[in-house]
UniProtKB/TrEMBL annotation:
<dbReference type="Pfam" id="PF02055">
    <property type="entry name" value="Glyco_hydro_30"/>
</dbReference>
<comment type="similarity">
    <text>Belongs to the glycosyl hydrolase 30 family.</text>
</comment>
<dbReference type="GO" id="GO:0004348">
    <property type="term" value="F:glucosylceramidase activity"/>
</dbReference>
<dbReference type="InterPro" id="IPR013780">
    <property type="entry name" value="Glyco_hydro_b"/>
</dbReference>
<keyword id="KW-0378">Hydrolase</keyword>
<keyword id="KW-0326">Glycosidase</keyword>
<dbReference type="Pfam" id="PF17189">
    <property type="entry name" value="Glyco_hydro_30C"/>
</dbReference>
<dbReference type="InterPro" id="IPR017853">
    <property type="entry name" value="GH"/>
</dbReference>
<dbReference type="InterPro" id="IPR001139">
    <property type="entry name" value="Glyco_hydro_30"/>
</dbReference>
<feature type="domain" description="Glycosyl hydrolase family 30 TIM-barrel">
    <location>
        <begin position="83"/>
        <end position="420"/>
    </location>
</feature>
<dbReference type="GO" id="GO:0016020">
    <property type="term" value="C:membrane"/>
</dbReference>
<dbReference type="GO" id="GO:0006680">
    <property type="term" value="P:glucosylceramide catabolic process"/>
</dbReference>
<protein>
    <submittedName>
        <fullName>Glycosyl hydrolase</fullName>
    </submittedName>
</protein>
<keyword id="KW-0732">Signal</keyword>
<dbReference type="InterPro" id="IPR033452">
    <property type="entry name" value="GH30_C"/>
</dbReference>
<feature type="domain" description="Glycosyl hydrolase family 30 beta sandwich">
    <location>
        <begin position="424"/>
        <end position="483"/>
    </location>
</feature>
<dbReference type="InterPro" id="IPR033453">
    <property type="entry name" value="Glyco_hydro_30_TIM-barrel"/>
</dbReference>
Length: 485
C-alpha cells in the first residue's frame, strides 16, 4: 500500500512539474509610444512589400460584433521560430550560372540579404539527383556498396558554389539541411532510381553510410549541414527519382541503421526529420515512428509538404496542429511546396502568391517552426527538369535576356521572412471574422510582427487590438500586410 501511495505521489509531482514547465511565461509588452509601420502587397497595384502607413495606438472600447478586429496577445507565446528559405537544387544552380554577374548579385541580395531582400535563412538541397536536375546521377560507381568511389565532383560545378554564395550573402549563417530522392539503382528492388521501388534490406547499412559520406564531403567544402530528412516523399511513386518506405520501414531504417550510424560518425547533433511528405498521412507516420522509444530518440522533427490537395480535397492544415498536440516536444517543419504545372501566362497570377500566404499563416498557427519553399530559381520554362515536371518558383531567370522575373509568391513569402527574426516566439493572433487571416511573432528585440491577409474582393477596415489599445488599419482587396510595432 505504502509503495502505491509513494508511486502516486511521485506521479502527481511529475505532472505538476510538467505543467509548470509548459506554462506560458508572461511577456512584458507595452504599446506606449509605439508606432505601427505597415507594409503592403496588393493585387492590381504597384504595392510590393511597400511601406504604406505609420499608425498610432489609441484607447480601445469594447469591440462590437459588427467590428472587424485582429486581437494580438503578446503574453501568450508558442513555438520558437527557426527561419524561412528555399531549396537550392541542381536546376536553381544551373540557371544561376547562366545569368549575368549583375543578375546573379541581384538574385543573391533578393533572397539572402535582410535589408536589400527578404532575408532567407534556410537552405534545403538534394543528395545526388532529383527531378530538378538535368539528369540522373549518384556519387558512386554502379554496384559500389562499399562506397569506395564516392565523390561529389558533380556538385562542385554549379550547386556548391551557389550554396556558398547564398550562405555568405546571408551573413555567413544559414540552416542547411539535405534530402535524398532515391538510393542508387543497385540498392533498390527495381534496379531503377526512378518510379518508386524500395531500398533492399541488404543495403540498409550501405545507404546509411552514404548520408555520412555526403555530410562529410559537404562540410569539407565549407557548407555546415544542420540536418537531414530520411527520404523525400516516401509514399509517392514518381516518374522521377523516388523510393517507397512504409512508416514501419522508415522507423526501422532510422533506429537500426541511420541514427546509430550518424551517431557513430560523430554526427549525433544533426537534426533528423522524418516523413517529408504531405499533410494527409502526417499523423500516422508520426505516431508509428515517435511511439517507438528507440526511433523517437533520434528524431528532431517531422517535415511536411502541401500537395495533399492532388486528391481533389482541401489542404489539411489541421493535421499539422493535431500532430503538434500529440508530440509537443517535437518540431514541425514545412519542407517543400511549389505551384505545379508551369505556364508562362500565369507568372504573375496573384492566386499563386495567396496560396503561399494562406499556407504559411495556417502552418505557423499550427506550430510549425520553419518553412522551406521548393526551388529558389528556375528558368523561363520552369526548369530544367529531366522528366518534364516543370513548376513555378518565386523568382524565374530568363536565360535568354538575363532578366529576373519576380512572381507574387516572392512578395508573399517576404512578408514573413523579411520581418520575423530567428528565435522569435509566435504569439496569439486572432481575427474576429473570416474575412481576414493572421499570425503574429514577437522578435527578440521586443518588436511584434503581425501578418494580415485579405483574400476577399473588398477593401476592409480592421482594428489591430492589443489589450485596451487599438489602431485602425485599411487593407486593400487581395492584399497581404505586415505590421511592425
Amino acid at each position: 500500500m505504502k509503495k502505491i501511495i509513494t508511486t502516486a505521489l511521485l506521479a502527481v509531482s511529475f505532472i505538476a512539474i510538467s505543467q509548470q514547465k509548459n506554462k506560458t511565461k508572461p511577456v512584458s509588452f507595452s504599446t506606449k509610444d509605439k508606432t505601427v509601420t505597415v507594409y503592403t502587397s496588393a493585387d492590381g497595384t504597384n504595392l510590393r512589400l511597400s511601406k504604406t502607413d505609420n499608425l498610432q495606438f489609441t484607447d480601445l472600447k469594447q469591440p462590437l460584433e459588427t467590428q472587424l478586429c485582429v486581437f494580438v496577445n503578446p503574453s501568450k507565446t508558442f513555438q520558437t521560430f527557426l527561419g524561412i528559405g528555399g531549396a537550392i537544387t541542381d536546376a536553381s544552380a544551373e540557371v544561376f550560372a547562366k545569368l549575368t554577374k549583375e543578375s546573379q548579385q541581384e538574385f543573391l541580395n533578393a533572397y539572402y540579404d535582410k535589408e536589400k531582400g527578404i532575408g532567407y535563412s534556410i537552405i534545403r538541397t538534394n543528395i545526388h539527383s532529383c527531378d530538378f536536375s538535368s539528369g540522373s546521377y549518384t556519387y558512386v560507381d554502379e554496384g559500389d556498396a562499399a562506397l569506395k568511389s564516392f565523390n561529389i565532383e558533380h556538385d562542385k560545378e554549379f550547386r556548391i558554389p551557389l550554396i556558398k554564395k547564398a550562405i555568405a550573402t546571408a551573413g555567413g549563417k544559414a540552416t542547411v539541411y539535405v534530402s535524398p530522392w532515391s538510393p542508387p539503382a543497385f540498392m533498390k528492388d527495381t534496379k531503377n532510381m526512378l518510379r518508386g521501388g524500395r531500398l533492399l534490406p541488404e543495403f540498409y547499412q550501405s545507404w546509411a553510410n552514404y548520408y555520412v559520406k555526403f555530410i562529410n564531403s559537404y562540410q569539407k567544402e565549407g557548407i555546415p549541414v544542420w540536418g537531414l530528412t530520411i527520404q523525400n516523399e516516401p509514399m509517392a511513386t514518381q516518374t522521377w527519382e523516388s523510393c517507397i518506405y512504409t512508416a514501419e520501414e522508415e522507423r526501422d531504417f532510422l533506429k537500426k541503421y541511420l541514427g546509430p550510424t550518424l551517431k557513430k560518425a560523430g554526427f549525433g547533433d544533426k537534426k533528423i526529420i522524418v516523413w517529408d511528405h504531405n499533410r494527409d498521412l502526417l499523423a500516422q507516420r508520426a505516431s508509428t515512428i515517435l511511439d517507438d522509444p528507440e526511433a523517437n530518440k533520434y528524431v528532431w522533427g517531422i517535415g511536411f509538404h502541401w500537395y495533399e490537395s492532388w486528391s481533389g480535397g482541401s489542404s489539411m492544415f489541421e493535421n499539422v496542429g493535431k500532430v503538434n498536440e500529440m508530440y509537443p516536444d517535437k518540431n514541425l517543419i514545412f519542407t517543400e511546396g511549389c505551384v505545379e504545372k508551369f505556364d508562362t501566362k500565369k507568372l504573375q497570377l496573384w492566386a499563386n502568391g495567396e496560396r503561399y500566404g494562406e499556407s504559411m499563416i495556417h502552418d505557423f498557427n499550427n506550430g510549425t517552426v520553419g518553412w522551406t519553399d521548393w526551388n529558389v530559381l528556375l528558368d523561363e520554362n520552369g526548369g530544367p527538369n529531366h522528366v518534364g515536371n516543370f513548376c513555378f518558383s518565386p523568382i524565374h531567370g530568363n536565360t535568354k535576356t538575363g532578366e529576373l522575373i519576380y512572381t507574387p509568391s516572392y512578395y508573399f513569402i517576404g512578408h514573413f521572412s523579411k520581418f520575423i527574426g530567428k528565435s522569435a516566439k509566435r504569439i496569439s493572433s486572432v481575427a474576429s471574422q473570416s474575412y481576414l487571416m493572421t499570425t503574429s511573432f514577437l522578435n527578440q528585440d521586443g518588436k511584434v510582427v503581425t501578418v494580415v491577409m485579405n483574400k476577399t474582393d473588398k477593401k476592409l477596415k480592421y482594428s489591430l487590438c492589443i489589450g485596451t489599445k487599438a489602431t485602425e488599419v485599411s487593407i486593400l482587396p487581395h492584399a497581404i500586410q505586415t505590421l511592425i510595432y
